[in-house]
Amino acid sequence: MWGSQLDGALDFTGKVVLVTGGVSGIGAGISTRFLQAGATVVACSRRAPAELPRHGERTVDYLSGDVRQAAECRSLIERVVAKHGRLDALINNAGGSAEVPSADADPALTEKIIQLNLTAPFFMSQAAYQVMHQQPTGGSIVNISSVSAVRASPWSAAYGAAKAGLVNLTESLAMEWGPKNIRVNALIVGLVATPNSLTHYGGSEGVARIGEMLPLRRMGEPQDVADACLFLCSPLAAYVSGAQLAVHGGGEKPIFLDLARRS
Predict the structure, then answer these.
(1) CA pair distance 28, 20, nearest whole angstrom
(2) Is 159 a catalytic residue?
(3) Are 132 and 178 in contact (CB under 8 A)?
(4) Which of 61, 196, 200, 216 has its CA 20 to 30 A from that of 178?
């Protein structure tokens, strides 16, 4: 019995997966991992990249769209279904924020940060629901949140607040949509090494120093986040909904521990 449940559990052949912001950084890693698992992957972003994520001879199906706009979210989902006939999983990955001192944060920028990190996943999930609840197999939605949602987020307060809201949204949608066989989960993502993080943290030496402070002695890789998405969208997570799965290598060590040892 156990063998039959595990056979092909991570085979996504015939499944259609949409990844927002799925052409760079963590999103590209997620798109590539689902391609490796056999899925038809659709990735969207506001601007097309120079090169699309690929695995062997297969590449993602790219769509342009601004997920901060509800009408564009509906259009994205409609285009996916018109071409591929279904939608099995939505990964709400698009997000991010520049560092902004809270006292001087521009109101327009603050609104854009909240739109991208909270409102956009809500709009995308609403649009996906219209398809998934009509499918006998339902669907799976994974929201990419952040450790900033569960700890202080200085110089990115709007981002942290939006990601915290995304966790609450995840739990609410999971409860509302569970009867329709739609599972909704969130990843609490920690520090991940991407081309952007190399610049942000001062190059490879800075990334190495940060990695040393983490329990697993390295920063995360996009594939670490991608593998968690793969699990949550698979039959192995059939009874997992409304969950917060931490992908942060054990968490950030409190600074007071080092300060106390120095005294």
Answers:
(1) 10
(2) yes
(3) no
(4) 61
